[in-house]
Amino acid sequence: MMTIKQLVEIALLESLKQEKPLLGDAVAHLSETEWLACFEKNIKVEVPKNLEHGDYAVNVSFLARHTKLAPPVIAQTVATVLNQHPSYSTSFTWHPIAGFVNAKVTEKALLEALNPLLLGSATAGQNSTKTTERILLEFVSANPTGPLHLGHGRWAALGDSLRRILEHCGALVCAEFYVNDHGQQMSNMANSLWFRSLEQLGLASFPVAEADVPFPYYPGEYVKTLAEQYLANLAQKAELVGWFQQYGAVRVETFETQDPFLQLRTYSRDAMLALQKALLDTLKVRFDSWQFETDLHAEGKVEEALATLKASGHTYEREGALWLKSSELGDEKDRVLVKSSGAYTYLAADVANHDKKFKRVENFNRVMHIWGADHHGYIPRMNAAIAALGHHAENFQVILGQLVNLVVNGEKTRMGKRKTMLTLHDVVEEVGVDATRFWLVARSADSTIEFDLDLAASASEENPVFYTQYAYARCSGIIRQATEPSINRESGETVQPRFSKQQLDAVFQTYTVDGWNSLLFDPLVSADNKAFVAVREIVLALVQFPEKVADAGRVLSPHIIVRYAMDLASQFHSFYNACRVLCEDEQQALARLALVRCIQLTLAQALDLLGVSAPEKM
């Protein structure tokens, strides 16, 4: 079913075909195709900031350069034609303001758009704008060297909410976590476990950091816990003591055999990854695919990708190193793939990773990442590598995200793996899953988030997630009050509900659009009536939900759903205060109760797209 916004676009395009003769000699010579080409890409339907101007607005000022007419004259001409058009004059009233044509939707048209939800035959917000998309979405991909921090949490909430939204728009989405388990950081992690274990056995001290010297260890408390767990296995403990007796307190990669290093690296990786997975499960973040960097090397994928680059003529050797000619493909300079020592750079593995992504049997037509803003400079070299491999670089897309500042007691708190800190787990423990996810997607990815721990944990209207969930719980309470028995607190007697659940279910099938119109709007007398305005605004918001979901999927911004859910909650409270739901007239009460059910279903769907629960009681 088309959204009202799409109908406005179609109406504008249809009317403009008729308006060419009315807009002067300057466009008389244009063919219909040329005329339509003047504005097809320029028409942008927006919601006015001032709702008194209308429900939708279109700026037609861009036609001034074609028609040689003033924008207000163009807008007046367009509005006149639209108000006379039989197909659109019954659904909208059109009026010009300056260079804008504003559309106000009739109440009947609003209820026609709401009817699928009233009939219970539609999933709130579902649309088909992304049905041709097959997306491989990689996000989080934290190194398995420590606990997840709040920045990882932002990518987790953003990525999973985006997956939900894109799927609601009809896309096929595979969520992927790439495990960086092959580089220097994993070596440092293995050595950190090694020295913490020796420390706990009293065999050696943990290394001490020196000023201005890079410290290749992880000193966090979590490594002590990891060492305790490792040594709890008596066979592992005995083996580690044997390594010490043979090699001493030196870095494990210097041993004559690689087995100890590989064992410690694998153990620390699996233990950290298990903790990360458990926390992501708690946060209701779903991954469909887990890819390991070590597998790329073991499967020969790195050599395969490099061979492809060499065969296509996109590499050269200099000073014993292998270079990618990335400067020829949009990067600022060429990049090293294989060092003169023969060691692969991180880029080499990343090239192999993307080669594998584009060759997946699912035939994804978009490979998408969520990266921190500090990775901005990495995008051109990946675009270059993907193009050099023979894939479509335009199908590679990166969402860059800004930092999260944790505010505790009014002060920003620094977070990181290398010191005592509040981890993502700590934050979830403090404020809960719902508040964590809601706050972490409340702003666009390119905006810094100030995560106020105290406010996020509070049960107050100032806390946006509480405010939104409370609206849902209030809807649920109204429906319970109307359809479920209750206990009289004074007498203790059971009070039978005013309506049965069957009556409420039946009302969804009872009325035509005209019937709903007379029950929801006619009793409110006039458009100046406060209750009329509140009901109209809530119905308009409900029918705009698919548009908001489609917008969020189009610009890849879940914060649009956050804003929508908060606005709908606010509009519901206004509606509830202005229009008595359980009024004396039985049919009106049932109709208004049905509208509350629609609000409840839409709030639940909006919260679900954000990975946030919808509690029946608060």
Fill in the keyword field for this structure.
alpha/beta, 618 residues, 4-stranded antiparallel β-sheet, single chain, 4 domains, 17 strands, Rossmann fold, Gyrase A, domain 2, 24 helices, 50% helix
Question: How does this model look, in words?
Answer:
- With 618 residues, this protein is of the alpha/beta class.
- It has four domains: 4-105, Gyrase A, domain 2 (2-Layer Sandwich), CATH 3.30.1360.70; 184-274, no CATH class; 299-401, Rossmann fold (3-Layer(aba) Sandwich), CATH 3.40.50.620; 464-609, Orthogonal Bundle (Isoleucyl-tRNA Synthetase, Domain 1).
- Helices cover 50% and strands 12% of the residues.
- It has 24 helices and 17 strands.
- A five-stranded parallel sheet has the order 7-6-5-11-12, sandwiched between helices. Strands 1-2-4-3 form a four-stranded antiparallel sheet. A three-stranded antiparallel sheet has the order 8-9-10.
- Helix 6 packs across helix 22 (545-555), helix 7 packs across helix 8 and helix 23 runs antiparallel to helix 24 (586-609).
- The protein is flat.
- The relative contact order is 0.10.
